[in-house]
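Friendly challenge for the regulars: who can give me the structure tokens for this chain first? No prize, just bragging rights.
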Amino acid sequence: DSTLTYRDEKIQLSKNEFRILSVLLKDKGKAVSREKLMQALWETDSFVDENTLRVLIRRLRQKIETDPKNPKLIVTVFGIGYTFGESQ
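First reply, four minutes later:
Bragging rights claimed.
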């Protein structure tokens, strides 16, 4: 597990949540495909599918978003994947 400090608060992230966040931050502001995110997760021995990815994104939003039901940080880009911040 990894610890993220955000808004002066320490947040525990699972290995996969950390990997997702790392990939999104590398391409901040750009849409990252579901496939690219799943490839980052495939480095583990666990099986990753789109449903698993959605669950991980939801958990990550619950940990870092002010309002997880109306995300501002991890935004869904319909038909593509996700972005950290507004996509360009």
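Residues 50-64 form the longest helix (15 residues). The chain has a mean pLDDT of 89. Your move, everyone else.
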